[in-house]
Design a protein that fits this description.
The protein has one domain (27-194): Endonuclease III, domain 1. The protein has 11 helices and 2 strands; from the N terminus they run H-H-H-H-H-H-H-H-E-H-H-E-H. It is mainly α and 197 residues long. The radius of gyration is 17 Å and the shape is globular.
Length: 197
């Protein structure tokens, strides 16, 4: 009899992936810096596998000043070129520039008096959406909520924020609980959603 807990079908045997699935994915996040980090990382993943990004996460944190929007917003063309030579991250010029754009858009929102956390969570009505999928094939890749988030973020100057990226971001940050019901994390994430601040 195996002691391995039942996990979502997308979670491979890779320990980095399992740790992420078990400890972070689907856990409601209300930390502004962490939400900013996840949006950048989800954008960096476009066209690649998520495990590629996860394995470079520490490299990203070092390269992007711990995802401090104030510092990233000051990056110059020289910084872009420097980052394109950094193997610890995905060296796609458009994705690097996208992170800088995101930092500037984030700061513009802050200056306009918009709270980043409240803004992002408003797309799910401030409360995690609890889904009860039986298997992976039922889980959507976009929803009306991710469509709305994508449209709004683009208007604010963000890019690499298509609806599919936004939905992956919502899943990762616990705005939706998309652990399948057979997964050992489904119930704990439901409980965490009920403890909403």
């Amino acid at each position: 009899m195996s002691n391995t807990p039942a996990r979502c079908q997308w979670c491979s045997n890779d320990s980095t992936y399992q740790r992420y699935h078990d400890q972070q994915w689907g856990v409601p996040c209300y930390n502004a810096r962490e939400l900013f980090e996840m949006l950048i990382l989800e954008g960096a993943q476009a066209g690649l596998s998520w495990i590629t990004v996860l394995k470079k996460r520490e490299g990203y944190r070092a390269a992007f000043c711990g995802f401090d929007p104030i510092k990233i917003a000051q990056f110059t063309e020289q910084d872009v070129e420097r980052l394109r030579q950094t193997p610890a991250i995905i060296r796609n010029k458009l994705k690097i520039e996208s992170a800088i754009k995101a930092a500037r858009a984030y700061l513009a929102m802050q200056e306009a008096g918009e709270d980043w956390v409240t803004y992002l969570w408003s797309f799910v009505g401030g409360q995690p959406i609890q889904n009860h999928w039986r298997n992976l094939s039922e889980v959507p890749v976009t929803t009306a909520e991710s469509d709305a988030m994508s449209k709004s973020l683009k208007k604010k100057g963000f890019n690499f924020v298509g609806s599919t990226i936004c939905y992956a971001f919502m899943q990762a940050t616990g705005m939706v609980n998309d652990h399948t019901i057979d997964c050992f994390r489904h119930q704990p994430c439901s409980v965490l959603a009920g403890q909403h601040r």
